[in-house]
Write a structure and sequence with these properties.
Length: 401
């Protein structure tokens, strides 16, 4: 599926100029500025009587992902079209600008060049819209990477965007029309869950590869068999993620998010985002205060979920609350990282034990046992770090809210 995809440093228009040293390019948009929201551009030029489409997508490492293919003037051709289902959703791109380029000079012949993000909002409802808009853009931005299985980080960032959108809807549920917001939250939960197995396996494989590299022979070779088993399972998880991205349900969810960005349905407009954030944090505080050395894994996992919600609510309130909210966000991230390491260790150990239940050689069993020991050590370390991380977060929240 990677045929024709080339990673390169973004170059605005690496096209062949005519005898006058210039060339014309038509730029396209889809729906409600979907390409511009994601930082992508879709264009078409004519060279020697042949139309050539060009798609440029932002990537994780700052480089551009570019794809070119010859095609007619109505629809993007095959390879490009297969990257863009989340943008197109059954529609065709619309030409929004035609320009002539000569060197660094750009002459707009028709229309307007696609613009980037909207102007920042300063009212509460506007800030909710802006936050939802950023998450919607992140989903669009990382959809191609998940669809083409380009980078494990695409799945992570797409899931984070889904969680943030859900957290915003949850924090603002006293302001929003629940008949509108709750079904949207449910669909976002479905989407995030569709990528859960793939993300869990990405994290587990990264951890195990690192651990296996430190094993001595012959344990290292034996552990490679465990890695191969998980890699085969990951292929199935990727197929499930791709199936979700190809579904009408996903496209309808994107339509709903796009409508939410234009204007969420509200039942009252006066709201303090700082108070919403304080409410989310108080839910976390009730649980976190009861944590101790004897807390169960489930109790820590619950605190992790509430910590995420508190963090995302603080991000929403940051334009209103300023620096104190930023401190809460930073401390909440550290709190999450500790509990995330604990949860990752739990998942890794459970999966390793599951592999041990299958018929394996003694060498693989020994290697898996070694890896289980290391995951247990990580759990102990995370539990030891948790009280300090919580105290720092609690102090920051008291100053902010």
């Amino acid at each position: 599926m990677r045929t024709g995809l080339v990673k390169r440093t973004p170059v605005r228009c690496p096209f062949v100029a005519d005898e006058n040293g210039s060339y014309e390019v038509s730029y396209y948009e889809v729906g409600d500025r979907r390409l511009a929201r994601a930082g992508a551009t879709l264009s078409r030029r004519v060279e020697n009587g042949r139309g050539i489409w060009r798609l440029e997508l932002p990537r994780l490492n700052g480089e551009g992902l570019s794809l070119e293919q010859a095609g007619g003037p109505v629809s993007p051709p095959g390879r490009i079209g297969r990257v863009l289902p989340a943008y197109l959703r059954g529609s065709e791109p619309t030409q929004v600008a035609r320009v002539r380029l000569r060197g660094e000079d750009v002459e707009v012949l028709e229309g307007e060049l696609p613009e980037g993000d909207d102007q920042p909002a300063d009212d509460p409802i506007g800030l909710i819209r802006a936050m939802l808009g950023r998450q919607y853009a992140e989903i669009l931005r990382h959809d191609p990477g998940v669809r083409l299985d380009l980078d494990a980080e695409d799945v992570h960032r797409l899931r984070v965007a889904v969680r943030r959108a859900r957290a915003v809807l949850r924090a603002a549920r006293g302001v929003l029309d629940p008949e509108w917001s709750e079904p949207l939250r449910a669909e976002l939960k479905w989407l995030g869950g569709s990528f859960g197995p793939r993300r869990d396996l990405d994290v587990l494989l990264a951890r195990l590869r690192s651990e296996v590299a430190e094993l001595d022979q012959p344990e290292r070779t034996a552990a490679d068999a465990l890695i191969e088993s998980l890699e085969a399972e990951r292929e199935g998880a990727q197929a499930l993620a791709a199936e979700a991205l190809a579904s009408d349900r996903y496209f309808q969810l994107l339509d709903s998010l796009e409508a939410a960005v234009r204007g969420p349905r509200v039942r009252r407009g006066e709201v303090s985002l700082a108070k919403l954030a304080a409410r989310e944090f108080n839910r976390l505080r009730k649980v976190a205060r009861r944590l101790g050395p004897e807390s169960t894994d489930d109790e820590l996992h619950r605190a992790r979920i509430l910590g995420k919600r508190a963090r995302y609510a603080a991000e929403l309130a940051e334009p209103e609350a300023g620096r104190p909210a930023r401190q809460v966000v930073a401390r909440a991230k550290a709190f999450q990282d500790v509990l995330g390491a604990h949860q990752d260790a739990i998942v890794a150990e459970a999966r390793l034990r599951g592999l041990l239940a299958e018929p394996t050689g003694s060498g693989a069993a020994f290697a898996a046992g070694r890896l289980v020991e290391r995951e247990r050590e990580r759990r102990v370390e995370a539990r030891a770090e948790l009280p300090k991380a919580w105290r720092a977060l609690d102090r920051a929240a008291r100053k902010a809210w």
